[in-house]
Design goal:
193 residues; mainly alpha; transmembrane; membrane; transmembrane helix
Amino acid sequence: MNTPAHLIFGITAFGRADSGKVTLAAAAGALIPDLSLYVLAGWHLIVLGTDPEIVFGQMYYSEEWQRIFRIDNSFVLWGIALGLAAMLRSKVFIALSAAALLHLLLDFPLHNDDARAHFWPVTNWKFISPVSYWDTRYYGHIVGPVEVAAVLGCCFVLWQRYAHVPAMRVATAAAALLQISPVIVWMLFFGGV
C-alpha cells in the first residue's frame, strides 16, 4: 500500500484523540516499515542522481536493500516488540508496534514481485501475492481505487475524532490529498478530464 494510506490506517486504528503521544507513536509505527525505502531511494535519487529505473528496477531488489527490508518488515520482530510493549503496559509502544504490524498485515497480501521477507529471521521466504496494490498486471487497477476509498473513509473518521485538534485535521487533509493526488494527476493527463 501507499505510505499515506498506512499512516491513515495506523492512526485510525491506534491513535487516540486524548493522547498526542499515542497518536504520534501510531503514525511512527505506520511509517517505520517504509522508512528505509525512503532513505535508500531518496539518497540515490536526490543526492546521487541515480536513474529511477535503476533504483526501483535493480537496487530495490538487490540483496543489500532486501536485507534491510527484512528487518523493518518482520512480523517476528514487530510481534516481539508488541509483546514487550504489552508486558510493559506502554500505550505509546503498543500503538507504535501495533501500527507497524497493521502496516505489514496490509502489505502482505498486496505485493507481487516486490514482496518482502516478512518472517525474518525465521525464514527469508516471501509471499508472492497474485494481487498488487499498484501493478495493473496483478489487479492494481482494482485494488488502488479500493485503497483510496478506504483511506477517504478513515479520513472522515479522523476528521470527526480530531475535531478539537486543528493540526490533526490539517494532517488528515494532507494525507488524504497525498493519497488521491496520483489519481487526480493521472486523470488530468490521461483521462481527458
